[in-house]
From TrEMBL:
This is Precorrin-6A/cobalt-precorrin-6A reductase. It comes from the Bacteria. Keywords: Cobalamin biosynthesis, Oxidoreductase. InterPro entries: Precorrin-6x_reduct (IPR003723). It is an enzyme of class 1 (oxidoreductase).
Length: 256
C-alpha cells in the first residue's frame, strides 16, 4: 500500500489534535514541525522536527527531499510569516497546501474592546495615565511595552521572560493553558487589573480571560489578526481530517 507523507506546521493545540486524528487513520507518514519558540513543548503524538526551514525556499527543498505529499499549515493565527512561507513553498514545490484556521473571537454584549493593529499600537492604547495591565502575550511580543513604563504590568507567558523587561513595575507569571473563566476572574480581581492586552487568538483554551473581563467590566485592548494567504482552509480539526481522509482514501488490496 502506498503511504502518503504529510508535513504539519504546528505549535497549536489543534495541530496536536490533528496529528492525533491522522495518526489514528493508520495510513500516513506524519511529521509535525515546531518553530522551537517554546522551551518545553507539549508532548506530541507523531514524530517532531524543531526549528526553521530557512524561509520558503528551504521549506520547499525540505518537502522535495522528503517526498511530502501534503503540507498542512496549523500554526497560530498570528504566525503570519510562517503562513506566508508555507504558501510560497507550496507554489514553488507544487505540494498541495491546506490550512487549519480557528475562528477569531466575536465581540459580545458587554465586551469593552479597543481593537488595534499591532503590539506597538496596543502599548500606546494604554494611555498616559498609569494603569494596572495584564499582558497575555508571547515573550517575543513584550518589548514595545518598555516604551510605556508608567504602567504596572502583570505578564503571563508559557516560558520565563528572559531577559526581564526593563520596566520599573512588572510581575511575571509562567503558566500554560487552558485557563477557565473562574480562575481568570480571581487572577484579575486579586491583581487589581484595570485593563487586559490580548491577541484575538480564538479557541476555548485562552478565552477565559475575555469572558472574565466581560464579567468584571474590564476593558480589553485586542490586537487584530494579521492578513494570511488565501489557501483552502478549515475551521475545525474534524473538518480538515475528514477532507484528508477523502483526498487520500485507503487503498484496499485485492485478493487472489
Amino acid at each position: 500500500m502506498a503511504v502518503h507523507s504529510i508535513l504539519i506546521l504546528g505549535g497549536t493545540t489543534e495541530a496536536r489534535q490533528l496529528a492525533d486524528a491522522l495518526r489514528d487513520m493508520n495510513r500516513f507518514r506524519l511529521k509535525l514541525s515546531l518553530a522551537g519558540r517554546t522551551k518545553v513543548p507539549v508532548e506530541q503524538p507523531v514524530p517532531v522536527r524543531v526549528g526553521g526551514f530557512g524561509g520558503a525556499e528551504g521549506l520547499s527543498n525540505h518537502m522535495k527531499a522528503n517526498a511530502i505529499d501534503l503540507l498542512i499549515d496549523a500554526t497560530h493565527p498570528y504566525a503570519a510569516r510562517i503562513s506566508a512561507n508555507a504558501a510560497k513553498a507550496a507554489d514553488i514545490s507544487g505540494v498541495p497546501l491546506i490550512a487549519l484556521r480557528r475562528p477569531g473571537w466575536e465581540r459580545q454584549a458587554g465586551d469593552l474592546w479597543t481593537e488595534v493593529e499591532s503590539v506597538e499600537a496596543a502599548a500606546a492604547a494604554l494611555g498616559h495615565e498609569p494603569r494596572r495591565a495584564f499582558l497575555a502575550l508571547g515573550r517575543q511580543e513584550l518589548l514595545p511595552f518598555e516604551a510605556a513604563p508608567q504602567h504596572d504590568y502583570l505578564v503571563r507567558s508559557v516560558d520565563p521572560v528572559e531577559p526581564p523587561l526593563t520596566l520599573p513595575h512588572v510581575r511575571y507569571l509562567t503558566a500554560r493553558g487552558p485557563f477557565n473563566e473562574a480562575d481568570e476572574r480571581a487572577l484579575l480581581a486579586d491583581s487589581h487589573i484595570e485593563v487586559i492586552v490580548s491577541k484575538n487568538s480564538g479557541g476555548a483554551a485562552s478565552y477565559g480571560k475575555i469572558a472574565a473581563a466581560r464579567a468584571l467590566g474590564l476593558p480589553v485592548v485586542m490586537i487584530r489578526r494579521p492578513a494570511l494567504p488565501e489557501v483552502p482552509s478549515f475551521q475545525t480539526v474534524k473538518a480538515l481530517a475528514a477532507h484528508v481522509d477523502q483526498a487520500f482514501p485507503a487503498i484496499q488490496e485485492r485478493g487472489e
